[in-house]
Each structure stands twice: as C-alpha cells, then as structure tokens.
C-alpha cells in the first residue's frame, strides 16, 4: 500500500483546443453586453408575461406550445430573484430595477453559445475533417440572425440547442454501435438522444419535426441491422427494446413530467383558467375554488344549481333566464311563443340559478336524506328567481330557425301546454347508474316530448338583439344526434335548497354555499384537458407588420425590427448574414444536383466516387437536407402568422451543409494541385466576405453603436427590408 505512494499520481487529459476555443468565443459573442438594451425587445413582451405568472404561481395557458421553454425562461428569472412585478405591455418599455435582465436572458444566450461547439462535433461525428467542422462552427458563430435571437428572452436558441444535441447524441450512439453495443457510453448517448428530443418538443412543437426525422433514421438503421446475419434474434430484440425505451418511452415520460412540474408550480387561479372546465378551475387555489369550496358533491332533487356550458366558445356562459319575454314578432316577421327568455349569460348572476325538481312532487327543497339524481332520470328545471319551468316546443328559435326555441313556460291558456320534462344523460359516465355530480359530471338534457337537446347555439359569436340584452342564444337542437360540447353542461355552483317559500328561497339564492366537500382532479385528467386546450385553442391570427411567408425566408426578403432606441436611433433587427444565407441555398442546390447525377451514373454502373465517400455523402444529406426539409416545408401547410425566426432551425441544418459540400468538392472534383490551390483561395476569400458582412451588420445585431441616417440607409441592401429611419 505504501509502495503506491512512492510515485506521484499522474492524470492525462486529451483537450481539443478547437472545441475549447469555439466554446469560449461563442460564450463571449452571446454574453457580451447581454443586459443591453435594458428595455423590452420584441417577443420578450410575450414571454415575459408568462415568466411573471410563474413567479406568482398563477395558472396560464399558452396555445403556442408546451411549457418546458417557458419554465427555462422562468428559471432564469428565479435565479435572478425576479418577483414577477413588471407590466409587460409594450415593446421598448424600460425595465424597472427589480427586473434581472441579464439573468432572464442568460439561458437563451448560453444555449446559443453552445450551439457553436455542438455543430463542430456533429461534423466530426459525420466523419468529416476537423477543418470542415471548424468552418461549420464559425458559420454558426458569425450568423447574425442566430446571434440576435440568442441574446434575448426568446425560445428559438434553446430549441436549436436541443435539436443539435439530439442529432449529436444519436450520431455518437450510432458510431458506437459498430464496436461497443450496450456499453455504458452506448446507453448514455442513446438515452441522451431521447432526452434531448423530448426537451426540443417541450420547448416548441417545432422540435417534433427533428424528433420524427431521428426516429425515421433510427428505424432505417435498425432495418439494416435486421439484415445482418451475425446478429441473433435475441440480440435484435434487445436492440429494438433499447431503442423503444430510449426514443419513445423516455421522451413521453419526460413530456408528461414537464406538464407535471408546470401544473405543480401554477396552482393559483388567474386570468386564463376561465377557458378550462369547472372541474379544472375548482382544482386551482382561489377563483372558482373559492366559490365552490364546500359544495355538495351529488346533485339531488331540490338542489339549487348553476349550469355552465362545457364548450366555452365564443366565451364561457351559464344557463340563464329573466322576467323579459321573447317579442311577439321578430324583425324578420317570424313569430315567437312570447314566453320568458332563456339565454346563455357570460357572467355570474343570481338569474343563473336553477332548481332540480322531481316531476312527481311539488317540493323544491332537498329531502332528508337527499335523493340523488342519476343518469337517465327525468327532471324539471325550475328557474330560481321567477319559479318558471325550463321548456322547449315546436317554435323556431330567434337566431336559429331550424332549431327549437327554449323558454321558461308561461301559461297563457291558449292551448300551448307545458313541455318541461327533461332526461338527464351523463356523457362521461362510467355506468348507467352513475350519480349526477357537481363539476365532475358532463350532462346533456334531452327533451322528453321532442327529443331535442338543450344547446348553447352554434351561432358562434352571434348574440341576441337588444330585446335579449345581447346575451347568447340557447336552443333545442332537433337535428344533431352526435356529441358536441355545445350540448353539454356541468353543474358549477351547487347548494342543497332548504326553503320552500319563494321569498326565503330568493334570500338563499343570494347567499354563499356552506357545505364542505372537496374534489381534486388527477394529474392525467388535468394534463389531458390542458393538452387539448393547447392544441385546439387558437388566438385569432392577424396580420403583423413583420409577418412573412415561408417563401420570403429562403432569400431573406424580410426582416424584423426588434428594438429602437427612442432618441439615439440605435436599433436591433433580426437580419441574417446575406453571404451565409446565399451560400446555404447554393450548397443545398449543389447537393441535390450532385446527388441526382451520382444516382443516375450509379444506375449505369459508373461510380464517380468511392463507396465509403458515397455513404458519407448520403448520411450527411439525410441529416442536413432532411433536417432543413422537415423544419421548413411544414410551414407551407400551416395557417398561422409566420415570422422570419421560424426559419432558423431549418437554416441551421442548411448551414451545416456548406462545409460538407465544400469538402466534397475539394476532395473529389478538384483533381489537380492547381485546382486545389485555387479552390482554397476562393474559400478564404468567401470566408472573408462572411466575416465582413457579419461586422457590417453587427451594429443592428448588438444594438450598438448607434448609426447615422446615412449609415442606416446603407444597410438597406434590399428594398423589402424595413430599416427604421427616425425623422430629424
């Protein structure tokens, strides 16, 4: 033992100086002057609101994607001690002293900086030279649009980081496959691939494109493994299960974990929870939970209830009535029943209360013990304040003439008998004997006489005229037999009625509930509802001053003004390096043309390049051209407002292709020493122009120094670019 101490312990390490230098330069370029400008820059006004809500633990719904990216931005705020108190109401607003600007922008900047060494390693793993890998990393470093996007509280740089990490991890895993399957490093890189894919999807759904690409490539590689006679059936099954675990199970589990953390953090009621179901709202602290705390769980005969329409579009509303009647004749000459109006009212009101009555009894109070209402039971719904019965009949509805009018019955003694019996159908029941439950049960009311279903009118956005106080129409839907959320209602507020006398009952209806029964949704129920809302809830897409089409992106015919100093004229724009964008397009075109040429020649048994070079060319194209295509082409199918920054993930893959094509041309098409020398000189000249353009546009990338009007006009290389010129 003592003999071991005679000699010193020596640790040797192999350091890739290129990698270290690129990482340091990337960090400097992204972190330098990160707090400038100390003002809201473009979409920081959007993401900042969510960061504030995280700090205050207030629930929100963002229809742009999953919560992981927002949580990372909020992490920056948390590390900086942000209390969430800032009004994110306009671009250019000066940040108050309590806003840790550097901390909020730190994680996107770090992600953008680390993309530089990641690109270097991807080219090395693709078996290209270190010179080509260095070139790719420098192109990412000098791309002005990527630099701009990574210096602010935005998500694209984080998305691109996880995309590149997923690609690198898969390549390392695949290269280890040949000689060290199921080793520790093999498992590490395979699992990291799944983790990175999940993180990319969790930041923005655009990450799904690269995830699908890698799954396809993994499937293709496994297909080739099936043809390997050296692998036993057991070994193949183990490989299949390992890939399924790492590339499917782990990403799904992590995706669920993002939502679990999101829902755990945001436990307070806020402005967004009203679009959720009553059950979801009741699970949040404050808001509806404060109102419904202590409500009876089971609806019984004599229960006093409010009924909320499940659809919640165009706005949430409750079944409502008031003393006013339908006009004898509408403006178009059609007649009505002139009975009491029934509407869907978008505000809480005492006229939203109804009493569930047993048709065979006169009492309007809950018996002791209560008699619960079950699926299939027949009830009458009595309006609490006016004591008139919910009714529908064969009279055309005011706005929907093909549907039946719904009213509260008034006996005019004109041979129009009451038709006020309704069958309760619990849509989400587990059995036909289920009890109607507060908040949890989603019910339809089917009219016994006509089989019409009580429905908030499908006349989306339309409201009744002045005589109906602009409230929403309620109809009896005769035609539809299918399930639609506009036909489904849930009990939101509920109490057991105790007063048989009308005057006492009115006082009771105005008073809060008191009984204490609580019910929380499971995580999976909340996840399913929130996920569905994210996928289906779309804000109205409107034309934005800086919105663009996918065709504009390839040639960079558009830009986005991110920030403008109110006095000096200093400004920040999302503008790319023109030389890099043009070179990326040329590289893609050259790759496609050369690939077609090689394929045709190979079909004729003419092999222009060695087989290993061909395999390298194809695999690189699968990653780079495939990555560009899957991250770009889907935007032609999307009906949403598009911006130039949506192209950045596709651009990143296209930039990777530039050194790949250059190395291929230098190795296989420049045969003589003279041609190789000329080609090298051209590359040096081209790279110098890349740096020159980067330096030229740096003032509008970093926002400083401020430029004169003449200098700003000189930067307008295209007429379609919107460079801001302040009037003197």
From TrEMBL:
Q: Which Pfam families does the record associate with it? A: MIR, PMT, PMT_4TMC
Q: Known SUPFAM superfamilies for this protein?
A: MIR domain (SSF82109)
User: Where does the record place the MIR domain?
Assistant: 296-359, 370-427
Q: Its GO CC terms? A: endoplasmic reticulum membrane
Q: Which reaction does it catalyse?
A: a di-trans,poly-cis-dolichyl beta-D-mannosyl phosphate + L-threonyl-[protein] = 3-O-(alpha-D-mannosyl)-L-threonyl-[protein] + a di-trans,poly-cis-dolichyl phosphate + H(+); a di-trans,poly-cis-dolichyl beta-D-mannosyl phosphate + L-seryl-[protein] = 3-O-(alpha-D-mannosyl)-L-seryl-[protein] + a di-trans,poly-cis-dolichyl phosphate + H(+)
What highest taxon heads this organism's lineage?
Answer: Eukaryota
The record's Gene3D superfamilies line, in alphabetical order, gives: 2.80.10.50
Q: Which CDD domains match?
A: beta-trefoil_MIR_POMT1 (cd23281)
Where found, per UniProt? Answer: Endoplasmic reticulum membrane
Instruction: State which pathway it belongs to.
Output: Protein modification; protein glycosylation
What keywords would UniProt list here?
Endoplasmic reticulum, Glycosyltransferase, Membrane, Repeat, Transferase, Transmembrane, Transmembrane helix
Q: Which residues cross the membrane?
A: 12-32, 68-88, 100-120, 154-171, 186-219, 240-261, 578-600, 612-630, 642-662, 674-694
Return the protein name: Protein O-mannosyl-transferase 1
Which gene name belongs to this protein? Pomt1
């Amino acid at each position: 033992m003592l003999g071991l101490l005679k000699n010193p312990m020596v640790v040797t390490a192999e350091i890739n100086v290129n990698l270290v230098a690129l990482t340091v330069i990337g960090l400097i370029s992204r972190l330098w002057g990160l707090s400038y400008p100390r003002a809201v820059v473009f979409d920081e006004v959007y993401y900042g609101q969510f960061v504030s809500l995280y700090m205050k633990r207030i629930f929100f719904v963002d229809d742009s994607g999953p919560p992981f990216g927002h949580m990372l931005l909020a992490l920056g705020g948390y590390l900086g001690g942000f209390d969430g108190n800032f009004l994110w109401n306009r671009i250019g607003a000066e940040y108050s002293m309590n806003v840790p600007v550097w901390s909020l922008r730190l994680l996107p900047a770090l992600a953008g900086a680390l993309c530089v060494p990641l690109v270097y390693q991807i080219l090395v793993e693709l078996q290209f030279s270190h010179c080509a890998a260095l070139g790719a990393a420098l192109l990412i470093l000098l791309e002005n649009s990527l630099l701009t996007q990574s210096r602010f509280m935005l998500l694209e740089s984080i998305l691109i980081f996880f995309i590149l990490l997923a690609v690198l991890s898969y390549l390392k895993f695949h290269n280890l496959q040949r000689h060290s399957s199921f080793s520790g490093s093999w498992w590490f890189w395979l699992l990291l691939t799944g983790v990175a894919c999940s993180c990319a999807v969790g930041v923005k759904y655009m990450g799904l494109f690269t995830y699908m690409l890698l799954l396809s490539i993994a499937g293709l590689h496994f297909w080739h493994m099936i043809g390997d006679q050296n692998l036993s059936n057991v070994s193949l099954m183990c490989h299949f299960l390992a890939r399924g675990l790492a590339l499917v199970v782990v990403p799904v589990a992590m995706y669920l974990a993002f939502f679990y953390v999101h829902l755990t953090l945001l436990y307070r009621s806020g402005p967004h929870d009203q679009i959720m179901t009553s059950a979801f709202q009741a699970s949040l602290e404050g808001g509806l939970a404060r109102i419904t705390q202590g409500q009876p769980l089971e609806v019984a005969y004599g229960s006093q209830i409010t009924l909320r329409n499940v659809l919640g579009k165009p706005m949430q509303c409750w079944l409502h009535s008031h003393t006013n009647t339908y006009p004898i004749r509408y403006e178009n000459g059609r007649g009505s029943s002139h009975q009491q109006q029934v509407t869907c009212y978008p505000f809480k009101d005492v006229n939203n209360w109804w009493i569930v009555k047993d048709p065979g009894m006169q009492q309007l109070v809950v018996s002791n013990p209560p008699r619960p209402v079950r699926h299939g039971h027949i009830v009458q719904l009595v309006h609490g304040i006016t004591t008139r019965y919910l009714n529908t009949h064969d009279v055309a509805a005011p706005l929907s003439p093909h549907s039946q009018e719904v009213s509260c019955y008034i006996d005019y003694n004109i041979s129009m008998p009451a038709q006020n019996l309704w069958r309760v159908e619990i849509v989400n029941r587990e059995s036909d004997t289920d009890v109607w439950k507060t908040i949890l049960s989603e019910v339809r009311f089917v009219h016994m006489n006509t089989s019409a279903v009580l429905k908030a009118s499908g006349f989306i956005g339309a409201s009744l005229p002045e005589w109906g106080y602009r409230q929403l129409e309620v109809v009896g839907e005769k035609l539809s037999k299918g399930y639609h959320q506009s036909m489904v209602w849930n009990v939101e507020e509920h109490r057991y009625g105790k007063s048989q006398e009308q005057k006492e009952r009115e006082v009771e209806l105005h008073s809060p509930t008191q009984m204490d029964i609580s019910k929380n949704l499971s995580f999976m129920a909340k996840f399913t509802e929130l996920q569905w809302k994210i996928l289906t809830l779309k804000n109205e897409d409107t034309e934005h001053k800086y919105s663009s089409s996918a065709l504009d992106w390839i040639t960079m015919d558009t830009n986005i003004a991110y920030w403008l100093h109110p006095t000096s004229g200093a400004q920040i724009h999302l503008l790319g390096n023109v030389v890099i964008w043009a070179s990326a397009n040329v590289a893609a075109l050259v790759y496609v043309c050369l690939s077609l040429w090689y394929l045709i020649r190979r079909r004729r048994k003419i092999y222009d390049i060695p087989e290993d070079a061909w395999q390298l060319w194809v695999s690189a194209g699968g990653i780079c051209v495939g990555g560009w295509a899957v991250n770009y082409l889907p935007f032609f199918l999307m009906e949403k407002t598009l911006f130039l920054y949506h192209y950045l993930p596709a651009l990143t893959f296209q930039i990777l292709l530039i050194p790949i094509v250059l190395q291929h041309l230098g190795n296989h098409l420049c045969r003589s020493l003279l041609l190789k020398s000329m080609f090298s000189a051209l590359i040096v000249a081209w790279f110098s122009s890349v740096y020159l353009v980067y330096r030229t546009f740096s003032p509008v990338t970093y926002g400083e120094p401020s430029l004169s009007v003449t200098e700003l006009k000189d930067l307008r290389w295209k007429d379609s670019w919107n460079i801001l010129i302040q009037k003197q």
